[in-house]
Amino acid sequence: MPVLPACLAWMTFAVTGRGVSIGFVKVRLAFTGNDSPVVMQLLSTMGVFAEFERV
After folding, report:
1. What are the beta bridge partners of residue 3?
2. Hey, what long-range contacts does 51-55 have (CB within 8 A, 24 or more apart)?
3. Rounded Cα distance, 4 and 25, in Å
């Protein structure tokens, strides 16, 4: 099942909404629930590239 950018954002919102932090070590991104729009845009971009890598 492919992880679409919208699904990735939804999963991030669902997990951080419960007080859990998500961190991507390789790209040095952390999601805590109080994220700026720029960080959320980077998350969407990561999802798009992940989709292209699967094709």
Report:
1. none
2. 51/2, 51/3, 51/4, 51/5, 54/2
3. 21
What are the CA-CA distances from residue 30 to residues 15, 16, 40, 48, 52 (Å)?
A: 13, 10, 10, 18, 23
Q: Is the pLDDT of residue 6 over 70?
A: no
* Annotated domain spans of the chain: 5-54
Structure tokens at 47: 């999802």
Amino acid (1-letter code) at residue 19: G
Q: Are strands 29-31 and 22-24 parallel, antiparallel or unpaired?
A: antiparallel
The answer to whether the predicted template modeling score (pTM) of the entire model surpasses 0.90 is: no
pLDDT, one tens digit per residue, over 7-49 is 777 888 888 888 888 888 887 888 888 878 888 888 888 878 8
